[in-house]
Amino acid sequence: MAVMPDIAILTALVTAAADAEVLPRFGRVTARGKADGSLVTETDLAMQERLRAVLGTRWPDATFLAEEMPADAQQAALADGDRGVWCLDPLDGTTNYAAGFPYFAVSLAWIAGGEVRLGVVYDPVRRELYAAQRGRGATLNGTSLRVTERVSSLRESVAVVDFKRLPEGVASRLATRAPFRSQRNLGAVALDWCWLAAGRFDLYLHGAQRLWDYGAGRLVFAEAGGAPCLLESLEAACDDHLTLAPRMAVAATSPLLRDAWLAWLRCG
Fold first, then answer.
1. Is residue 145 helix, strand or coil?
2. Closest to 220 measured CA to CA, from 237, 235, 204
3. Do both 12 and 131 map to the same domain?
4. Are 47 and 170 in a shared domain?
5. What is the mean pLDDT of residues 91-99?
6. In the chain, count of helices (H) and strands (E)?
7. Using CB atoms within 10 A of its CB, is residue 26 exposed (0-12), middle (13-18) or buried (19+)?
């Protein structure tokens, strides 16, 4: 069985890398498009290679899976995970970063036994470090983090919704008959999960996020006491099975609120 890495060492490595590679380039990079329509910058690649090197030196037995790797290499890394898998999004929110919008983060998860066991999400702009260990809770800058249940109904809620990846019918209903008080779309999945954990909004909906997007942030939210749900489609049941395929994410700050949110989304 893989031995869980020391979270204090890990958070120090992630913050040092982000402070060296991400912030100095902010507002100074040019993005290029990838085959899937998303963007990549030199910062994504520099962070990926820096963390691959430092993690490999400190924990040489674990495999490495990152967003900017070829798909076949990602699949091979996840399959060869008996001694642990590092799952990295070197710059979550690249479009924001390239546009000068200060909402982005580095997201790193450690997977063992088919579960995300440890997660770190670092926002270098705000110097906010979110961390979680399965079964041991979540923290923000070293202080225990617990979800705040500010509201008890959909109508009172603030939601973060990514419209771009939703089924057309769902997106149309949300745009014309939204059940919540107000809606935002912020553009960095890992931070979305962490801000939900920090009580900065109440509901979450995203149509298609990848393992490196949700791995660390979802663990932070769950360990903070939130109610997450990953699923293949709105008709499917919640399923925590780790896969490289895109997953829909539905979440809320309490199980009752999440279930009400799911029921509204499924009502057609």
1. strand
2. 204
3. yes
4. no
5. 95
6. 8, 14
7. middle
User: For residues 62 and 95, what is the distance between their CA atoms, to the nearest angstrom?
Assistant: 30
Structural domains in the chain (count): 2
Asked if 124 and 57 sit in the same domain, the reply is yes
Q: Distance between CA 110 and CA 134 in Å, rounded?
A: 10
* 174-204: pLDDT as tens digits: 999 999 999 999 999 999 999 999 999 999 9
Neighbours of 194 (CB within 10 A): 31
pLDDT over 90 percentage in the chain: 88
Q: What share of the chain is helix, strand, coil (3-state, %, to 5)?
A: 35, 25, 35
Q: How many other CB atoms are there within 10 angstroms of residue 191's CB atom?
A: 27
- Token pair recorded at residue 85: 């898998």
Helices (H), the chain: 7-21, 42-58, 71-79, 94-99, 168-177, 189-197, 211-223, 255-266
For the entire predicted model, the pTM comes to 0.96
Give the tokens for residue 73. 């290499």
Give me the pLDDT at residue 200, please: 96
pLDDT grade for 81, boundaries at 50, 70 and 90: confident
Q: Does residue 142 sit in helix, strand or coil?
A: coil
Q: Which two tokens stand for residue 55?
A: 């993690």
Query: What pLDDT, on the 0 to 100 scale, is given for residue 1?
Result: 62
C-alpha to C-alpha distance for 83 and 5, rounded to whole angstroms:
11
Average pLDDT of the chain is 94
Q: Which range of residues forms the domain containing residue 198? A: 154-266
And the tokens for 229? 């749900």
